[in-house]
Amino acid sequence: MGVADEIARAELEALAGQGLRRQLEPLRKAPGVEIEPRPGERLINFSSNDYLGLAGDGRVAQALAKGAAQWGAGASASRLVVGDFEPHHELERVVAALEGSQAALLFGSGYAANSGLFGAFVQREDLIVSDELNHASIIDGCRLSRARIEVYPHGDLEAAAKLLKLPGRRKLLVTDAVFSMDGDRAPLRELLRLCAEASAMLVVDEAHSSGVIGPRGAGLCVELDVVSDLRLTTLSKAFGVFGAAVSGTHAVRELLVSRARSLLFATGLPPALACAALEAVRISSSPEGDELRARLWRNIRRFAAGLRGLGLGAREESAIFPVLMGSPERAVAGALRLRELGILAKPIRPPTVAVSRLRFALSAAHSEEHVDAALKALREIW
Ligand code: PMP
Question: Which of 16, 113, 122, 160 falls between 20 and 30 A from 72, CA-CA?
Answer without folding.
Answer: 113
